[in-house]
Amino acid sequence: MSRFELTRRHALALTAAGALASCARRSAADAPEGLLRVAIANEPDSLDPLKGQFASSALLYKQLHAPLTEYSPTGGLAPGLADGWRSRDGQVWTFRLNPGLVWSDGTPLTAQDVVWTARRAVDPRTGFADLGDFFAVENAKAALAGEAAPETIGVEAPDLHTVIFRLDQPVGLFPVFMREFYPLPRHAVEANPDRWTRAENWVGAGPYVLESQSALSYRLVRNPSFHAASSVSIPAVRVEVVEDAATRTRLFRAGDLDLADQPPPEQIGFLKEQIGERMKSFEAPILSYLKINHARPALADVRVRQALSLAIDRAFLADQFFDGEASPTETVIPSEAPAAPADLDTARTLLAAAGYESGTPLRLSLRTTSGGRERLAVAIADDLSRIGVEIELLATYPVDMFQAVDAGEFDLALSRFDRGLKSDPNFMLQPFGPEGSADDGGWRGPVREAFDALMNQARATINAEMRSTLYHEAERLLLAQQAIIPLLHERAFWMVSDRVTGVRGEVQPMLWRDLGLAG
């Protein structure tokens, strides 16, 4: 593949070519009664919470599974399967399950299911795609590394309704992290180990169960056995995977959808004019950044990484590709300080000091996903070309890009993560911490060890102010080494039809159990 030579103007031309055509809108009365129609941007990689990594998977988990603790309607902490929890020291946590819990097939849901799921999570054959803070459980790291049996981890059930977690160190926010720990039905999983997530075998404890599925479509129906079933008003949900943002938007404007996420970012202003209050935006923990492969000799030099960061015009990216609805950033944790403008002279000086100047250009590949992100990558490639860096752009489907990154087959990767309903700004840094989902760039060395120590200390700190101070100190090390290149803090956009009720202005409509349908 040849060096990519499109410029910003080309990127904007591609954007203009994808402008949305107008379309007729059907009446809400034409919508099927009692059916919420949702379109999402990506196909879930698994409906098993111990395997899936995609944001689309996490969205469906919130509908199909019930966590130990729960997100409240405002995004805070609320009871889930557990109606109470306590700890004297932040290191030993006791959770009390709601009485009378059952799985969707009527089988009792007990504390033993929770313990079995926890052990399955640290089994190397079946473990979490992203263990995150579950690593704080005693022996969890050793079990996942194959150095200890899963049965030795610090989770036990002294009776049918009590679960005790013993941690290696205090974690003040442990109940918060349990909002995304989903106990699984042992009897159903063991009966169909490789196919238990198929509709015909589905057993769950969430507000909905999986009734049917096809290649790019899922139908969910209300679970009468859900512990808060009386609060779930929408009887059924149809979820369609529509990867093209313009197509999702056309379907929504035609009246074929009630919820659709991620409209084309460059069309936000246009859509606000066309559909008015049905275009909703939310403060969201979303970061776009460049992932860097530190194993590449050129990128192991911090001066090169800093030069790449200095060359990027973040304000241009925000204005031209997000209609001003994203914030240019040089940080991971959101900050009030504005991002500095591109500094090409300093960037060229740093590259020259690293041995890359006229006659010896730096050549790098930039991986991205096809579609809207590809246009963003074009503009970044053009920025880097202004300091003499030659970029080969590799645009692929998301799964292919993730596999390439996991295998270390990349130089740079245009990456994005969405922390969903995690509203604490400090949660933004966690994916880059030890065993985090974004800890895949190969950053190593003494500074990395100091960063990991601060991240571990922060997770163990109960006091919120002290915890925030530690996270910011860890971030300072991450950015001083330019281990990654932050680009933009994005807002979340959802198109919401007039049929949908219960959407709160401060929380994305991800908890469909809390929504309703007018009429």
Question: How would you briefly describe this protein structure?
Answer:
This protein has 519 residues and is α+β, with helices and mostly antiparallel strands.
Structure characterization notes:
The chain is an alpha+beta fold and 519 residues long. The chain has 15 helices and 19 strands. The strands form four sheets. Strands 1, 8, 9, 10, 11, 12, 13, 14, 15, 16 and 17 form an eleven-stranded mixed beta sheet that branches. Strands 4-5-7-6 form a four-stranded antiparallel beta sheet, with helices on one face. A two-stranded antiparallel sheet has the order 2-3. A hairpin with a 2-residue loop joins β8 and β9 (217-222). α1 (8-17) runs antiparallel to α12, α9 packs antiparallel against α11 (344-353) and α14 (446-460) packs antiparallel against α15 (464-480). The longest helix is centred in the last third of the chain and has 17 residues, at 464-480. It starts with 7 loop residues before the first helix and ends with a strand.
Highlighted features:
disordered N terminus; alpha+beta; four-stranded antiparallel sheet; eleven-stranded mixed sheet; single chain
Strand content: 15-25%
Q: How far from one another are the termini?
A: 55 Å
What is the alpha-carbon Rg in Å? 24 Å
- Large-scale geometry: globular
Averaging pLDDT over every residue, what do you get?
89
Number of strands: 19
Classification by helices and strands: alpha+beta
Low-confidence stretches: 1-6, 8-22
